[in-house]
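Sample pair:
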Amino acid sequence: MSKLAWRRTWFQVHKWIGLILAILIVPISLSGAALVWHDALDRVVNPARFATSGTTLLGPDAYTAAAEPALKPGERIAQLAMPEHDGPVVVSAAAAPAPGARPQGGPPQRTAIYLDPPTARVLDVASSRAGLVRFLHVLHGSLQVPGVGRTIVGWIGVAMMVSCFTGLWLWWPTVGRWARGLRWRRHRNTDTNLHYLMGFWVALPLFILSLTGAWISFPAFFAGLTGQGGPQRGPDRGGMMRAQPLARPAQSVATVLREAQPLAGGATLRSIAWPTDKSPDWTVTFAGGGAPLSIKVADDTGTATPAAAGAGGPQGGVARLMRRIHDGDGMGIVWQVVIFIGGILPAVLAITGIIMWWRARGWKAELAAKQRAKA
């Protein structure tokens, strides 16, 4: 196949990926850009839950006692999360499913109780499925489509990787050196120049974000490619998420923390997860030098043991790294800005691409009409 034929082929692939997926790319990319600053956005839209009076911390049992009056009938405490900076303490509670109710897709609904760290005063009570930030998370991860939404987003990520490759091929000047492609006025129309120039600069970051997004959507497939998806299967993630906290654990929160702390080596407490009907152990997480350190405490005996390495999934650190790259958590302000721009520009590229396609339809129709008139 000649170079011109390849160019025509890649043009068709690039064009139809953009046209077919434009309506989906815009909400995914814009929501991803907003979620780079999800903590700051949460503070803006929910100021009451961040109206803390200081950073002094009480014991975890004080927070659970303060949260219990805010629980609805049938709810049980599932997790306690300590603040990393000046935020609130968050106690999450799960409601027992109604008898005969069918399990719903996605994470189960939780009630979050936000507490003032120095006083344990209740600042806010909210559903885990409510609020702007939660809406953006679900929109970005599954397009608000239950069940198959995550798969759809994963395949959009694959299509975007192809679009990045074909876009670079089409950007490359057919005559002269490659630096000619960096010129602004490659076309008489502003939108076309924007599409060429912004497409070049965003291609590599967008490829990385698309790859990591597909990795998050298809963890088992990529685990096999990296040789980390062995025959042993991890726990059912969906089943574990829907597990119900025990109504009356044998161990108290204070006892669990006392048993876990000697194994943490003085690290800072981050969270405590209650035992459930799927796992009879408490999980106490501490801030480690790199990855968080998790300690399991058996509810029946109170024996504390370090969690097995790789217990977070079959891909271990690779999966965590892919998510950090995609979300920007702990990756520094430079990469977070790159991700933010990488979320804004695909929406601009989709809009300018549609304008270019519509204009081309117009002049092709005019040309066809002139040819018919001459005939």
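The CA atoms of residues 220 and 229 lie 7 Å apart.
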